[in-house]
What we know:
The chain has 18 helices and eleven strands. It has helices at 8-18, 21-26, 36-54, 58-64, 81-90, 109-143, 146-158, 286-322, 346-378, 382-417, 429-438, 446-459, 464-480, 487-513, 516-550, 556-573, 576-585, 589-592, and strands at 67-69, 74-76, 161-166, 182-185, 191-201, 210-217, 230-235, 237-239, 245-248, 251-256, 267-280. The strands form three sheets. Strands 3, 4, 5, 6, 7, 10 and 11 form a seven-stranded mixed β-sheet that branches. A two-stranded antiparallel ribbon has the order 1-2.
Amino acid sequence: xxQYTPPLRDMQFVMHEVLDVVPALRELxxxxxxxxxxxxxxxxxxxxxxAEVLFPINxxxxxxxxxxxxxxxxxTTPKGYKEAWAQYVxxxxxxxxxxxxxxxxxxxxxxxxxxxxxxxxxxxxxxxYPGLTQGVVELLSAHGSKxxxxxxxxxxxxxxxxxxxxxxxxxxxxxxxxxxxKAEPQDGGxxxxxxxxxxxxxxxxxxxxxxxxxxxxxxxxAPEGSKGISLFVVPKFLPDAxxxxxxxxxxxxxxxxxxxxxxxxxxxxxxxxGATGWLVGEPNKGLAAMFVMMNGARLGVGMxxxxxxxVAYQNALAYAKDRLQMRSLTGPKAPEQPADPIIVHPDVxxxxxxxxxxxxxGRFLAYWVALMLDQAHLHPDEDVRKDADDLxxxxxxxxxxxxxxxxxxxxxxxxxxxxxxxxxxxxxxEQYVRDARINMIYEGTNTIQALDLIGRKVLMDNxxxxxxxxxxxxxxxEAEGVSEAMQEFVNPLADLGDKVQKLTxxxxxxxxQNREEVGAAAVPYLRVVGHLVFAYGFARxxxxxxxxxxxxxxxQTFYQAKLQTAxxxxxxxxxxxxxxxxxxxxxxxxxxxxxxxxA
Length: 599
């Protein structure tokens, strides 16, 4: 059976010893009283909930899946899900980062991200229910009217109600300008919506008393394409005069998808048949408003794969220490046993170290972006807010695509450690692989993230955001370049920084002649920039570990492990960047001059 131990010590290392988050958070008036003890205590208690409540129903929930009743159009979640939700709500976990004016605890996004890592490691399918709800809270907080905020936010923030995002339709996914769902104005300011949505995560379930759908639709006479999309809030049950659950609305689940993974989450086909909804924000500006939720979801998906990488690594490590197969190439390491544990074999260590490195690099990136998200929202200095917002925008596609690509690779490596047992359901490893695969697809496929990075986040502003990150890297390289102990980490970081700058300029020039050069280079370009970000993170983590070792810190083995993982990253994972640069430079011709191939 699988196991999970919240990696609290590793989380504390990144937050307090690498990022030094407390002084940064105390610059924000809303978080002036936050300290390390509070952060650690919240994470410890959340870890207990994840390990003791969510994790035990992960494997069983995957086996059982959700149940759809065509007669009632109701969805029942797997055994234990509803009870876990009740405990979650009773303990106040949905309120963790919600605004105090709506009953929330108002803690930093950073703390919420650390908790989400553990929730996703314990049970990704279950965690999607509150995760999407938090996105609705953020969307309505940014674009809802005062009446909408007062009506929906307290109940959404508390977990009494849940939320979804309804974008995709049977004939269109990424190209939302093609949506056909219509919204007709009614007397009194409401709208009647009709249409079909698919792939709606958490679209129907038995956990909460009401579900609030955020729906993209088109008004009569709206402009063609994405400029004609509006956003509507459409509750499953219409609130009554007191703001409580009232009569049913014309929106319902017409079926659930039978998926490769995340079986415990209800991925629904949603039908709108004269459903009553209300406009959120301005007419025809719905896609821009929805991007608040979409960008938050993209960061959340990165946390999903970070959690899966960590739990898969933990289980593969435990198995490798226990499983006996063959002898070490340099002689028996366990002579009292009939064979050595497989952890003595070089390639088993490669697989384990790959997963560990992807987890540690992903944790640094995710927590750093979460800290900057807090700064972007709350820092009193406008320039600091702008810089943080630019870096969050630049790094969001890296969080979504790089971490999820790596997470899928890591869960596969960890399943391989188990050999044939990894392919068997009861060990839990094949579930992690299946669950991790969706993270590369939804909330904008990873190719869309790559196009967003190179097109919108880099070339559209002539590299201004990328240059801001480059200055951070350059400052670190300059500060640590004089340290002989840091050369093995700083030199490859500096080298890749120069190469990214040159590659970006080259692709910018090519794109002026042929826009398909951007599409051809996008995916390897994201891998290159992702490695630059991870190289920076590992160099910072190595610096923190070296400082602690020099100070004679008590847990010498912990810090030595950080250095060894960083060395493995630079030796065995970082070199991918060279191949990715060559692929990015190879041009569009080898892809597009292929008519005979597809004839």
